[in-house]
Amino acid sequence: MIQVIGHTNPDSDSICSALVAAEWLKAARGEDTVALAQGEVTGETAFILDQAGVQAPAIYDTVAGQKVWLVDFTDLSQAPAGIEEAEIVGIVDHHRLGDVTTKNPLEAWIWPVGCSCTILYNLHKLENVEISRSQAVLMLGAICSDTVAFRSPTCTQKDKGAAEALAEIAGINLEEFCDQLMRVKTNLEGLSIASLVDRDLKKYPFEEEAVVVGQIEIANFEQTNDKLAELQAELKARCENDGLKLAALMVTNITTSTTQLLFQGEWSTRLAEHAKEDNMLVMENTLSRKKQAWPWLQTVLAG
Question: What percent of the chain has a predicted confidence (pLDDT) above 70?
Fold first, then answer.
């Protein structure tokens, strides 16, 4: 049995990629697979799963002693428990290459595109594997989400081409689907402060210390203006409780492509000169953590 699993605090691409990759491995390679998750799905992901008529993957206990395919990450800080005792046999990812190492040769598909599901769409074509409607919806939802409806600088022509083809397979109006998805994506109703921080929080090793960077995507800043103090307090608590040097949160207005970056921790002083006010700076034309915010942060933190 091969376990297919995405990163901690799973977003839509992490969940959808695990589900799609598990089925692709069955069809293309005849493998016995199961998709797993490192946490509950978000409201956005639940919407995609409902549209696809697919259940969320089970939440894992441990991958120790198992064969594993990783999707949507290669950083050990985002890996499941037991990864050191697992055999990583494959990877599908669209991020920078992290610090994962393997004992044996493996199959790795790492492309500079906007979404892991864009790679999986092309792998289906490469292996001549038929794409069902449910699989098309999963991949389409992940691509629209990760590229912020094709607005993100991470979006490539491969992402757009895959989305158009998948929308046709699924019998979906692409523009209408993206509009629905963005409304769900930016809905914060009923979410606690802790869940907002955890919503898409990723841990990065930097100078042998721990740094976390999260992201909330909203339609306008009125949704979060009254929550900023509580969000800052939560970030400060994470630093104190988890021994983090920096905890940052991108509050990203997808309508204006403007990000408010909140930050706490010992390394906050390294960002102070860029701050608009205490522990917050504004990043114009910034939608992507992967391609814009985290590379910038690494440069500033390195001094």
Answer: 100
What CA–CA distance (Å, rounded) separates 249 from 195?
A: 12
**Cα(206)–Cα(218) distance, rounded to whole angstroms?**
28
- Residues facing 131 on adjacent strands: none
Instruction: Write down the pLDDT at residue 201.
Output: 93
Task: List all residues 6 or more positions away from 234 whose beta carbon is below 8 Å from its beta carbon.
Answer: 193, 194, 197
Nearest residue to 2 (alpha-carbon basis) of 31, 42, 28, 43: 31
Q: Which long-range contacts (CB under 8 A, 24 or more apart) does 271-275 make?
A: 271/297, 271/300, 271/301, 274/300
Asked if pLDDT for residue 146 goes beyond 90, the answer is yes
Residue 50, pLDDT score:
98
Spatial separation of the C-alpha atoms in residues 48 and 53, rounded to whole Å:
9
pLDDT score of 152 more than 90: yes
List the chain domain ranges: 2-184, 193-302
CATH number of 2-184: 3.90.1640.10
- The identity of residue 279, as a single letter, is N
User: Domain 193-302 is classified in which CATH homologous superfamily?
Assistant: DHHA2 domain (3.10.310.20)
